[in-house]
Amino acid sequence: MPAADDAPVILGNEPGSFARGVLTDRHPALIQQVRDAFPCTPVQHRALDALLRSVTDGVIEPLAPDAHDRAQWEIWGRDSAGGSWFGRSWFDVPFLWSESYFYRVLLDAMGHFTDGPWRGVDPFAPFKDAELRGTAVDDELAALDGLAGRSADEQALALAHASLWGNRADLSFRIASGAAPTDGGTDPRLVADDGPLLWSLLPVGAASTVHLIADNAGRELIPDLVLLDHLLHTERASRAVLHVKPYPYYVSDATMTDVIDSLRRLGAASGYAAEIGKRLWSAMAAGRLAVRAHGFFRAPLPYSAMPDDLRQDLAGATVTILKGDLNYRRLVGDRYWAPTSSFAGRTAYFPGPVAALRTLKSDVIVGLDAHVLDGLEASGKPWRTSGTHGLVQARR
Ligand SMILES: O=P(O)(O)OC[C@@]1(O)O[C@H](CO)[C@@H](O)[C@@H]1O
């Protein structure tokens, strides 16, 4: 796998690849799940049928002429040779692009952008709600009580790991379980751990501003919020900015509605979770915690293409933390990089110090030590895509 900038872009057409499996299996299954979760109208059923036909046998169609963002997607759909992804097979265009566009068309099929009763309805809300109301979240919130008596450093480590593994919807605040070592020991599931560098970027009392680019709602967003509360409460940060998606995206990606739901869930809990909920509520009122939903967060593009206003905003961060797999793909570029190529090199364009907390769920990976890579490859297991491994990577 090449280290150079011309590393192959991940497409969906390689037989047996993870990307192809997402297009052939996950997208049709998701259409069915959405169909089953809502009392769909004939118009919606027809639109979902059309999307299913398109993703299985057809080509990528442009948005309707009156779609509010048609012109934007036409620009985003240009290839580097001046052609267009529209009219091509879903399998033959960049995976990042086809996945993003799939979600855009799915929202259209459900009438999300059309005047009428379905405008603004989140097609993924039933799944998000079920997760947020589930007993697993009760248990995870109750487990926060066990953290209250620990040192600030132990809490920081446990909460960062909870945020990381929350990306697998497998968060664990339970330091007693040994899942997330708090003694400075290494978590064997981490393929890279720049935790010490991350903490060195946020010394106590330095009036830092931390930005966090969120990923999923529910069992990931709650630990993300708890982590931000910790950074504010312990004065590792004096301001926090949470970036969410401007509309529902990638099944469970967090929107402002999800932030509100999570804050209400924390506030309605008991014990330490409720205390955290109250602090976050006050931090919002005081402007110490801000939420933003820039349109670029739903773009089918890497962050190297971010617009100037977002670049300037992130340039004001002491450190920007990116959560999850998709943000990682967009951070380093959705390509088959050499796994040992440098994380700092791949992210040099980013407008300030940056950190990634991610469980591995797709083929993209950089910044591995050669011996770590050898061990992973020797395991014979699908370590890149199974969500069994995670990473903390950072650069100043
Ligand atoms: O960003 P997340 O939530 O960690 O994961 C998103 C993701 O793993 O799910 C897709 C498969 O459905 C991948 O293509 C994509 O990267």
TrEMBL record:
MF (Gene Ontology): metal ion binding; phosphatase activity
SUPFAM superfamilies: AF1104-like
Location of the Damage-control phosphatase ARMT1-like metal-binding domain: 23-369
Keywords in alphabetical order: Hydrolase, Manganese, Metal-binding
Cofactor: Mn(2+)
InterPro entries (alphabetical): ARMT-1-like_metal-bd_sf (IPR036075), ARMT1 (IPR039763), ARMT1-like_metal-bd (IPR002791)
Gene3D superfamilies per UniProt: Uncharacterised protein PF01937, DUF89, domain 3
Pfam families attached to this UniProt entry: ARMT1-like_dom
Reactions it catalyzes: beta-D-fructose 6-phosphate = dihydroxyacetone + D-glyceraldehyde 3-phosphate; beta-D-fructose 1-phosphate + H2O = D-fructose + phosphate
Top-rank taxon, per record: Bacteria
Gene Ontology BP, a term: DNA damage response
Keyword Ribonucleoprotein: no
The keyword Transcription regulation is annotated on this UniProt entry: no
Annotated family: Belongs to the damage-control phosphatase family. Sugar phosphate phosphatase III subfamily.
PANTHER family per record: DAMAGE-CONTROL PHOSPHATASE ARMT1
Name listed for the protein in its UniProt record: Damage-control phosphatase ARMT1-like metal-binding domain-containing protein
Source organism: Streptomyces scopuliridis RB72
